[in-house]
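Attaching the record inline, Q. Sequence:
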Amino acid sequence: MTAPASAGSATSTRRFAELDGLRGLAVGAVLIYHYTSPFDGYYPGMPSAPFDFVDGEYGVQLFFLISGFVILLTAERARVTSDFVIARVSRLYPTYWAALALTTAVIVLSQAEPVRVTLGQVLVNTTMLQRFVLVENVDRVYWTLAMELVFYALMTIYLAVSGCRISIPTLRKLAAGWVVASVPICLWAATNPAGELTKAVLTVTLAEYAGLFAAGMMFYVSRSRQVVEPLAFGFAGVAVVDAAIMRGFRGALVVTLVVLLFAAVVAAPRVDLLARGPLHALGVISYPLYLVHQVIGVVLLAGLIPILGRVPAMVVVSAIVIGLATLLHVTVEGPVSRRLRASLLRWRVRGAS
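Structure, as predicted:
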């Protein structure tokens, strides 16, 4: 998940507030999705939701587009590679650790049957590297963090090799090679769907999502340089092809709509619906909300549905996790992340002296 970040064009210093609105839309979609059919998978005996929102899971694809946009912006600001690494570490880990502690506490205290953890599992999860050492996530939503970490690692390697001198023509070529390679990898994975090898290859290459990350970067080039970047749509097209291979026609259709929405927002001078109001407010807390909404929400829903009914319980639980995410944003995501970043920068200076 990406941090809220300034993203003005080269000719304007106005914060690209619409990104937060898009984050709000993405996290809201994922939340509603998890509180419908996935919840039924945890508790099949509970009353069913009056609707299914199966396409809400594609909020994650919107997050990956945003990540490509924001990470290139962040990388362009880095004077040395460690600037980028420190920015990412200080942004991700404090809120993640707090959310992990809260989720673990809820699991242990509730003794809910569908969600159990071990001490070793929790300890490995503190590294955020659990997927790479074949340890289960404490909360299933953490799988996207592994995707983000691989993307950050690729950008870190590029910054180190280039000496933080980003060349857009070179980046275009590297991204094109990566995106083109994603198609045969997805074709191979689709015929070998089971097993740790397939999972490992898809994780390390980001094959299913390479087009989204790369398109996000090219959309950033379009907005920051005030030009039309054809590769943004080319990469997005490959992302649709990969979605068709991995998820079928419906998946390809939804990814197409997600890309078109993102492209329209990037091209627009301003979108008030996203730049202010409820979606923007939700986007500001999207990272902690994403981290706490699933397991904690499922446990709370299981306790409240027999009392309130399915829909009222969904509304109440949504309000609770939004409040919890707001608290984490105010107490951890902002101040603790800033202090950690300052400490890491001081440590770097001392190490260089």
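Residues 230-267 form the longest helix (38 residues). The chain has a mean pLDDT of 93.

More tomorrow.
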